[in-house]
Specification:
The protein is of the alpha+beta class and 359 residues long. The protein has helices spanning 2-5, 39-47, 67-77, 99-107, 127-137, 160-168, 187-198, 213-221, 243-252, 332-337, and strands at residues 225-230, 233-239, 256-263, 273-277, 289-291, 298-301, 306-310, 318-326, 341-342, 347-354.
Length: 359
C-alpha cells in the first residue's frame, strides 16, 4: 500500500525526547556525519517535524527508542485527534506527555498494551515491533514476500506478516544478512525506517495513452463495489459515482485495508451506526451535504476522514459525503453488534477490499 498512499506527515514540531525545541534550521548534527548512510533520513525526519535532536547539536543516532516516543510521533503525525477519558493502563501516568497518544493508539489498534492494564511506555522498541506498528497503521496488508534474512526463523509469529510487508515495500532491505528482529531499534534506524515508509520521490507525469471512452468514464466516475468484511461476513458496498469513491478505490488497489472501530458502545445512537477513522495520510476528498435521514446499509464519510456505517435506519443530522450503500442488509446489524475484539488489536476491525465486476 505504501507506493499508493504515502504523503509527507504534517506533524507538529516535536523531538524524540520531547525536550528539545525545533526552532533552528537544519544544518547537520555533530554526531551525524554527512556521508552516514542514514544522514538523509535524519534530515528528512527533522525537516518534517518527526524527530529532532537530543540537544541542539546532537541527534544521538545510537540511542534506543521507547514505545511512548513512537506512539507520540504517530499520534502527532495524524494531527492529534481528540481523545476522551483516561487511559485504561495503570502504568500510563495521567496528564503525561504521551497519555493522549497512548489512548489514541490503543483505541485505533495501532499499538496495544501487553495486557489490559499494562502498556509499558518506557520499554524499548524492537525492530519487529516497529515494523508491526507501521504495518497495522498502513492497513495490515497481506504479503507473500520471501524473506532472505539468515535469522528469519527468529521473527515472532505476530510480526511475520509485518516484516514481509516491510520487505516487499522496501521499508527494510531484504538481504541474506541478519535482521535481529528482537534487537532494540536505534534512533538512526528509526529515522531510516520512517524515511523509507514515508518518502516518495516526485515522478514525471506519464504520457497518456489513448483510452476507450467507456474505460475513461468508468475510471473517472469511481463507480464500483467494495467488499466489507464484518465478523467473517462479507457485504457488498455499491459505491456512488464521485471523487470520494474514485480515490478510495485507488487507495485500495489490489490490497485490503483494515479499519479499527473508533468507538463502539459508549456514544449516543451507538445502536444505529458505528464509525471508523481512515488515517489522514489517505487523501480522501469530500463534498459534504447536510443529511438528516439515513437508511440501514448506507455509508458516509465526513471531512475528518471518519466513515459512518449505518446498520439501522436513523434520523441523525450531519455533514457527510455518501460513499454508497450495501446491496443487502440481511445480517448486517447482527454482524456489526457481534463483531468480536480482535486478539492483538484490543479493538474491533472491519476489512475493506475492492470488489470484482461480478460483485
Amino acid at each position: 500500500m505504501k507506493k499508493n498512499i504515502i504523503s509527507i506527515f504534517t506533524a507538529l514540531c516535536m523531538a524524540m525526547t520531547l525536550t528539545t525545541a525545533c526552532a533552528k534550521d537544519y544544518s547537520g548534527f555533530d554526531d551525524v556525519a554527512e556521508d552516514a548512510s542514514y544522514a538523509e533520513a535524519v534530515q528528512y525526519c527533522y525537516e518534517n517535524g518527526l524527530m529532532s535532536g537530543t540537544s541542539d547539536t546532537e541527534f544521538s543516532p545510537d540511542e534506543n527508542t521507547s514505545r511512548a516516543m513512537l506512539v507520540t510521533i504517530l499520534y502527532r503525525s495524524e494531527g492529534e485527534p481528540t481523545v476522551s477519558g483516561g487511559s485504561a493502563f495503570e502504568d500510563v501516568e495521567a496528564d503525561s506527555w504521551y497519555e493522549s497518544a497512548v489512548i489514541w493508539a490503543a483505541a485505533n489498534g495501532i499499538v496495544s498494551g501487553y495486557d489490559d492494564t499494562h502498556f509499558a511506555p518506557t520499554d524499548l522498541l524492537t525492530r519487529e515491533q516497529i515494523l508491526t506498528i507501521l504495518w497495522r497503521l498502513d492497513g495490515s496488508a497481506a504479503s507473500d514476500e520471501e524473506l532472505l534474512f539468515n535469522d528469519a526463523g527468529n521473527i515472532s509469529d505476530y510480526a511475520a506478516d509485518a516484516v514481509a510487508w516491510a520487505a516487499e515495500n522496501e521499508i527494510i532491505e531484504n538481504t541474506s544478512s541478519a535482521l535481529d528482529p528482537a534487537g532494540y531499534i536505534t534512533r538512526a534506524e528509526m529515522a531510516q525506517i520512517l524515511y523509507n515508509y514515508l518518502y516518495e520521490p516526485e515522478e514525471a507525469e506519464p504520457t497518456a495513452e489513448p483510452e476507450d471512452e467507456s474505460d475513461t468514464d468508468a475510471a473517472e466516475s469511481g463507480a464500483g463495489t467494495v467488499i466489507v468484511t464484518i465478523n467473517d461476513t462479507d457485504f457488498t458496498l455499491v459505491l456512488e459515482d464521485n471523487d470520494t469513491t474514485a480515490t478510495l478505490l485507488a487507495a485500495l488497489g489490489d490490497e485490503s485495508m483494515n479499519l479499527p472501530i473508533y468507538n463502539f458502545d459508549d456514544y449516543e445512537d451507538c445502536d444505529l451506526y458505528q464509525y471508523y477513522e481512515i488515517p489522514s495520510r489517505y487523501q480522501i476528498p469530500t463534498s459534504p451535504v447536510t443529511v438528516t435521514s439515513e437508511k440501514a446499509g448506507e455509508v458516509y464519510i465526513d471531512e475528518d476522514n471518519v466513515v459512518y456505517l449505518f446498520f439501522r435506519d436513523a434520523e441523525i443530522e450531519g455533514e457527510y459525503t455518501k460513499i454508497g450503500a450495501m446491496s443487502s442488509t440481511d445480517g448486517l446489524a447482527d454482524a456489526v453488534e457481534n463483531n468480536p475484539v480482535v486478539e492483538g488489536w484490543s479493538n474491533k476491525i472491519i476489512t475493506l477490499k475492492r470488489g470484482s465486476d461480478d460483485d
